[in-house]
Design a protein that fits this description.
Number of domains: 1
Number of helices: 3
Radius of gyration: 12 Å
Number of strands: 2
Helix content: 55-70%
Structural class: mainly alpha
Distance between the termini: 29 Å
Strand order of the largest sheet: 1-2
Order of helices and strands: EHHEH
Length: about 70
Protein backbone atom coordinates (compact mmCIF):
# COMPACT_ATOMS: atom_id res chain seq x y z
CA UNK A 1 0.00 0.00 0.00
CA UNK A 2 1.43 3.38 -1.03
CA UNK A 3 0.66 6.20 1.40
CA UNK A 4 1.21 9.90 0.73
CA UNK A 5 2.71 12.03 3.48
CA UNK A 6 2.95 15.82 3.56
CA UNK A 7 6.21 17.43 4.62
CA UNK A 8 4.45 19.35 7.42
CA UNK A 9 3.61 16.09 9.18
CA UNK A 10 7.25 15.06 9.02
CA UNK A 11 8.32 18.44 10.39
CA UNK A 12 5.91 18.08 13.33
CA UNK A 13 7.35 14.64 14.09
CA UNK A 14 10.90 16.01 13.84
CA UNK A 15 9.95 18.82 16.23
CA UNK A 16 8.74 16.24 18.78
CA UNK A 17 12.02 14.33 18.42
CA UNK A 18 14.01 17.53 18.93
CA UNK A 19 12.03 18.36 22.08
CA UNK A 20 12.63 14.82 23.33
CA UNK A 21 16.40 15.02 22.71
CA UNK A 22 16.55 18.69 23.81
CA UNK A 23 18.54 19.53 20.68
CA UNK A 24 17.05 21.79 18.02
CA UNK A 25 20.26 22.48 16.13
CA UNK A 26 20.04 22.75 12.36
CA UNK A 27 22.32 19.73 12.04
CA UNK A 28 20.15 17.58 14.31
CA UNK A 29 16.99 18.63 12.46
CA UNK A 30 18.63 17.69 9.16
CA UNK A 31 19.76 14.28 10.46
CA UNK A 32 16.33 13.41 11.88
CA UNK A 33 14.49 14.65 8.79
CA UNK A 34 16.70 12.60 6.46
CA UNK A 35 16.23 9.54 8.68
CA UNK A 36 12.44 9.94 8.56
CA UNK A 37 12.48 10.41 4.77
CA UNK A 38 14.71 7.35 4.31
CA UNK A 39 12.44 5.21 6.48
CA UNK A 40 9.32 6.41 4.69
CA UNK A 41 10.93 5.49 1.38
CA UNK A 42 11.74 1.99 2.70
CA UNK A 43 8.11 1.71 3.88
CA UNK A 44 6.93 2.54 0.33
CA UNK A 45 5.41 5.88 1.32
CA UNK A 46 5.40 8.92 -0.94
CA UNK A 47 6.18 12.42 0.30
CA UNK A 48 4.00 14.98 -1.46
CA UNK A 49 5.97 17.43 -3.63
CA UNK A 50 7.38 20.36 -1.68
CA UNK A 51 9.92 23.16 -1.99
CA UNK A 52 11.56 22.90 1.42
CA UNK A 53 15.28 23.60 1.65
CA UNK A 54 17.47 22.67 4.60
CA UNK A 55 17.19 26.24 5.94
CA UNK A 56 13.43 26.55 5.51
CA UNK A 57 12.94 23.07 6.97
CA UNK A 58 14.90 24.00 10.10
CA UNK A 59 12.93 27.25 10.41
CA UNK A 60 9.61 25.44 10.15
CA UNK A 61 10.64 22.70 12.58
CA UNK A 62 11.71 25.37 15.09
CA UNK A 63 8.30 27.00 14.66
CA UNK A 64 6.65 23.69 15.61
CA UNK A 65 9.01 23.34 18.57
CA UNK A 66 8.03 26.80 19.82
CA UNK A 67 4.31 26.24 19.20
CA UNK A 68 3.68 22.77 20.59
CA UNK A 69 0.59 20.86 19.45
Amino acid sequence: MNTSIIIGDIQKAVAKECRYWKDASKENIEIITKSYLDQLKRDDCTVMPHKQTVDSNATRVNFFIDHED
